[in-house]
Amino acid sequence: MTFTDQLWAETASLQTQIQRMPFNAELTTGTLPHETFQGYIIQDAHYLEGFARALSLAAARAPDADTIAQLAGSAGGAVAVERQLHSDYMARFGVSPESFAATPKSQACDHYVNFLLKSCALDPFPVAVTALLPCFWVYREVGKLIHDRAVPDHPYRAWIDTYAGEAFSASVDRMLDLTNRLAAKADGNMQAQMRATFERSSWHEWHFWDSAYRRAGWRTA
Predict the structure, then answer these.
(1) Which domains does the chain have, with CATH numbers?
(2) How far apart are CA 178 and CA 66, in angstroms?
């Protein structure tokens, strides 16, 4: 069993909860309310900008050129998806530029981004990489599950196909391989930090979708 296999096994209950939570269950059947999906893709665009920044921070701290190229390439990919949201998906799903500009980050989005930025700036490099891993891995598993079950004329098919494609899957495999290589060189204390960070980052994935389903913004009281 690889280190990442262990990470998934140790968070199996949370991963199952993510796959079965109302947002993803209704996204699978195509019954997720249009307004809920609109709010979600707005927050996803905000998140992807922060995620790209976190990847860039991690790339700057990478120990070798190949890892720099991998993480910087993933940062570029995140920006490309964010731009696609603006140029294609938002128009397709009825989100105007004015509506996006007027909608700030939700609490869940802001907290997740800040968690990643802090980890990628301050935590040991193996821990930073592990913090980034759930956004790759969890999205692929959820995307594959939804893609396999969704009907051909699914209203959110365009978005679903983004996370079920071979290119995205290959980027996930590279991230898994990097995490395993870093874990193999890490001592017990470092591996423990990586495990804790993976669980916390996976929880942020759950919280992001849960917040989108509840259409939660930023509570001041």
Answers:
(1) 11-26+33-214 (1.20.910.10)
(2) 10
